[in-house]
Amino acid sequence: MKESLDYIKASMSKSAVKTLLSGDGVPGTRAAPTRSGNNDAKAGGRLDHGENYTKGNQTVHRVKYQLNKDAENTTLKKLAAQDSHKVWSYADVPVPVPDKRLDEVIDLTFTTLKANLVSASSDTQSKKGESSGHGSKSGTGRGK
In angstroms, rounded to a whole number, what is the distance separating the alpha carbons of residues 69 and 91? Predict the structure, then answer.
């Protein structure tokens, strides 16, 4: 999954980064990568826009990572076949992000997405009732 996130980040245009970090995306719509060519297969996953909410005095935009059913990676493909709408990670981004901070904030967003990844094994344990929570390594729930 980390390789998938690396591919998505590398494939994002400056305008895609600006859109993602603007907070203007419609929840449930794709943020990256574009659906052109074989992006879905190569990326193995996608970023979707989540909800905006207020935390303190700041608007925060949730970014969600999901897997693609037509992924080239067989492991990702099998996991996506089980539930292509499952959120495997998320990052909460304070928005809007000034242009001069786009690179810094996109790096932090992908670092957070990697840190919050739910592993397939912890997901299986969770379904069996052997662990609690949502598999988030950051300890911040997934409620928003």
Answer: 22
Give the structural domain span for 106: 2-127
Please state whether 72 falls in left (phi above 0), alpha (psi between -120 and 50) or beta.
alpha
In a domain, 137, yes or no: no
List pLDDT tens digits, range 14-41: 999 999 999 899 999 999 998 887 888 9
Residue 69 lies inside a defined structural domain of this protein: yes
Report yes or no: 142 and 90 within 8 Å, Cβ to Cβ.
yes
**Structurally, how many domains does the chain consist of?**
1
Place of tokens 């242009």: 99
Residue 95 to residue 79: CA distance in whole angstroms: 31
Dihedral pair phi/psi, residue 94, rounded to 5°: -65, 130
Beta strand extents in 5-110 (DSSP E only): 30-32, 45-55, 58-67, 89-95
What is the value of pTM for the model shown? 0.80
